[in-house]
Description:
Blueprint: H1 3-6, E1 11-14, E2 25-31, H2 35-42, E3 43-45, E4 55-62, E5 69-78, E6 89-95, H3 99-110, E7 114-115, H4 120-127, H5 133-144, H6 148-158, H7 163-185, H8 195-213, H9 216-224, E8 226-232, H10 238-246, E9 264-270, E10 273-279, H11 289-304, E11 307-313, H12 320-329, E12 334-339, E13 359-361, H13 370-380, H14 397-418, H15 423-441, H16 447-454
Amino acid sequence: xxxxxxxxxxxxxxxxxxxxxxxxxxxxxxxxxxxxxxxxxxxxxxxxxxxxxxxxxxxxxxxxxxxxxxxxxxxxxxxxxxxxxxxxxxxxxxxxxxxxxxxxxxxxxxxxxxxxxxxxxxxxxxxxxxxxxxxxxxxxxxxxxxxxxxxxxxxxxxxxxxxxxxxxxxxxxxxxxxxxxxxxxxxxxxxxxxxxxxxxxxxxxxxxxxxxxxxxxxxxxxxxxxxxxxxxxxxxxxxxxxxxxxxxxxxxxxxxxxxxxxxxxxxxxxxxxxxxxxxxxxxxxxxxxxxxxxxxxxxxxxxxxxxxxxxxxxxxxxxxxxxxxxxxxxxxxxxxxxxxxxxxxxxxxxxxxxxxxxxxxxxxxxxxxxxxxxxxxxxxxxxxxxxxxxxxxxxxxxxxxxxxxxxxxxxxxxxxxxxxxxxxxxxxxxxxxxxxxxxxxxxxxxxxxxxxxxxxxxxxx
Length: 461
């Protein structure tokens, strides 16, 4: 992505999802110096509608040479600086589907616009000072949110709730650096450095850095979700458990062992966390080649899952096969699910090999125990604090890495002070902390870092 060229060109992209025979409206977005000129070349406003900023015009999109009508549409004008990119922005609101929006986009390109790269509209908003980098990433998170809580956390980032404390931290570090450098350059003209005050500022800054870093796990869970694998011997009720949990018949259920031949997936939301549930083939020694392939995929799913639900048959008890399976997954985060509780009485429940691990009792065929399972999952991943009241901050991996560098640098400043090293040594790590904090908000950012961040955006955003 050539950032030095980006702002000098007018870009165009389809800004809505395009699905055949679905979607009533499709939007084509333009941004740049010639956006309005291109719009006037293509759009015929009916009547005497004024071409003014932040007005909606009604009319037809026409081919500029043949005057053939391409679509009946609305046109939105948002002139600089009151636009998303702080450039002139034009949006054609066409009929949904494929053909209309694609034709309009091609006409815009023929008039001199360039097809936008992923995230380029938001990149321009950042480069033009409309957003800081944490707000830009909040937009991407909001578009990709898989739960209401994830959307709320993304919206918090978009509203500047991460930017503000990071900017405050960076300002505090800049103030400390200025105080120290002033004593280096003008030692004879200034009073001695107030070392206790600097130490207190460092302590306060580190406490704030650690507080924000503590939200990294929350952010990762909300953005990426949790991969949960249901594993167990054949015919212990894994597919019934998936169906009861997802409240639909995602998996075929029979009394025949080995019915599930491949990994069946279902997407759920548990306590605000997106959960990918994997119903795996029953693991056993199988002669059938297809079943063997499914069992191997089950083993791989169990090893890659964030959490394993080791499911067993309450009526059959703990078997040698259960023990062999447990030995292969016991190093993973694990919950025992004792299923078919409706077939036994409470006095004959199986004895499990590890009393420290959580246990949930279910009767999946009767839709019993699902709520208890969800609550146990939340406790196991220590996600009870993911309530709406605690979503002011939820940093991503990039932000967490930068904050960790800032934390290490500030801790090194403290060690430098404790070792009574010269002031020049203080400035080295203070600058590293300032650099790391600036990478979070975009005050200190390289072109390659921008490429990496914005390449993950969709084309029209």
